[in-house]
# Entry
Amino acid sequence: MEQTRHHYGLFTTVTMIIGICIGSGIFFKSDNILAATGGSVPLGVLVFVLGATSIIFGGLCISELASRADRPGGIITYVEEFASEKLACGMGWFQIFVYFPTIAAVVSWVVGIYICLLFGWEGTLENQMLIGFLFYTLNFVMNSLSARLGGGFQNFSTISKMLPLAVIAVCGLFFGNPAKGFQSVAPSTLGGAAWLSAIGPIAYSFDGWSISTSIAPEIRDSKKNLPRALVIAPVIILITYVAYFVGVSSLLDPQKIVALQDAHVYTVAKNLFGGFGAQLVLIFVIIAVMGTANGIILGYIRLPYSMALRGKGMFPLAGKLSKQDGKHGMPVNSAIFCYVITTFWAAIHFITVKFGLLPNSDVSEIAIVMSYIFYIILYYKVFALYRAGEIKSAFRGVAVPILATLGSLFILSGGLQSKLFFLYAAFCILVVLAALLYYRRHHLSVS
# Structure
């Protein structure tokens, strides 16, 4: 049996997590956060800190399992090894049918938003969704035909996405008026629970950290370096996000950011650098958003293939989905399957936005919130390892799982602010129940 090579050190692991997490969210969710907090920048910063804390403890929990897992594969593998194969089947179906396609559809829509801004096209929902559809179609084709093309674009976009964040943060902090944003506190907002709806956009902005655990077997001294990376990276992301959030609120009145919605990035850049500079900043933002969508699709197309390799008891059409294209060595059937599901969710997203069914939110946020509920199962398994004596430290085996669980419940409290939360949550649960039923029927027929 070939031994797994340890390619990545601490620095590479940290940069990889940062590259996965920092993407489109901060650019098009800042206005949502300010809308939820009544224009309060301090309250927005507080929710950013709480969101980062939830992720740090969640990451520390998952890293305990990652360092003990025998096989690569990330979250599904940890559920399979530490909980049960049946639950892994449910988690896999949730990720394939809900989690990944909703995020892919929404981020592709954001590509459409910023391309309309760049070229001065009319920013109707129809135009934005059409551009998003064409983009993710091209992206599925590119990633299905060549792993090198998709991977190369991912590396380029990771570098590009930091530039507009840094530029706007620095300009806002040094040339803007930070005190202006910190004075815009709405007491009525602070007194109620409406600000909790800011948690959804922030969870979206930080999402992706759990994907990094799939490289655990390839990290040098993974038991030490992965937990370190899962603390260092979220702290760096938090500092970057807060600097950008405060910076952009210093350059433009928070209420105006709310009114401009996703166009606020272009307006800030235009005020700073004029028309040409704004176009340049917008190009980097588009590359960043495209890179996020590319990374999601790059990982997504392999999921049905991975589930199919586990056998037809885990996923239907296993025979077809487990095949690779002979010429390119890529799971093309799996990619086509994912493309169809993404198109379905793009249509659902269009309907919810067109008719205002999810104000200040979108279909992907609820899927992200639900994923944190599933993580609680893994957090409990870390506590079980402590009780079994496999984890000696009370902090790592008791305090960290408790804090991670509280973090998940905090994320859930934000999701509950959406009026369609229970409808989408019910759909997520139905998908998992369908998976468990499928698994049970198959294994009963085998026995």
Q: What stands out?
A: The chain is about 75% helix and 0% strand. The mean pLDDT is 82.
